[in-house]
Amino acid sequence: MPLNLPIVLTWLRIFMIPLLVALYYLPDGTVSPVHRDAIAAAAFVFAAVTDWLDGYLARRWNQMSSFGAFLDPVADKLMVCAALLILLAEGRVDAFIALIIVGREIAISALREWMAQLGARASVAVNWLGKVKTVAQMTAIPCLLYGRPIAGIDTAWWGTRLIEVAAVLTVWSMLYYLRRAWPVIKEKAG
Q1: What is the pTM of this model?
Q2: Other beta carbons within 10 Å of 69
Q3: Residue (of 71, 70, 6, 18) closest to 43 by Cα position
């Protein structure tokens, strides 16, 4: 396993997950809900920034590795799923939306793994639609984690609208990837 700054940043995101979840299991009175939610939102924003930064640094410093390519999306999916479960438990996201997002992540990860085994991973490579979905999702989640107005901006309302947009883009991007993979699936299955 290579050890460089991009991979350390990825591991940092993974180690932040239990800390994020633990915030919501602290005994009552340990930290106020306002502070807890602010810390959780800030932690998620930090994780989103490190996600961008580790990829940027890996490309810039030519430190890309197969291990990093494996670990990075795992870290992202774990962080998003943990945050969605917290939001679901807090009643800040609809179960159907959380199920769509988590289900798509599992399905597309499995599809990518299968396509890689068939030698056709490029047919399900990340495209602009998945990137727009990710931006909507990574903006919505900290808004929902904080869930209070900031400078007159209703973060809960905006977070809800953005997570709904993310859910629509989630389905759209899943259909896109399935359509791209279908010719290979048809050829290999037939």
Answers
A1: 0.90
A2: 11
A3: 18
Domains of the chain by residue range: 5-189
DSSP-derived letter for residue 49 is: H
How confident is the model over 2-30, as pLDDT tens digits?
Answer: 789 999 999 999 999 999 999 999 988 89
Strand partners, 15: none
Q: Which amino acid is at 89?
A: A
**162 C-beta neighbours (distance < 10 Å), count:** 20
The CATH number of domain 5-189, selected from 3.90.105.10, 1.20.120.1760, 1.25.40.20, 3.40.640.10: 1.20.120.1760
- Burial track 11-50 (b if 16+ CB lie within 10 A, e otherwise): eebeebbeebeebbeeeeeeeeeeeebbbbbebbbebbeb
Q: How buried is residue 56: exposed, middle or buried, by Cβ count under 10 Å (0-12/13-18/19+)?
A: exposed
> How many Å apart are CA 172 and CA 85, to the nearest integer?
22
44: which 2 tokens?
Answer: 């998620």
pLDDT digits (tens, 9 = 90+) for 122-135: 777 778 888 899 99
Q: Using an 8 Å Cβ cutoff, are 30 and 96 in contact?
A: no
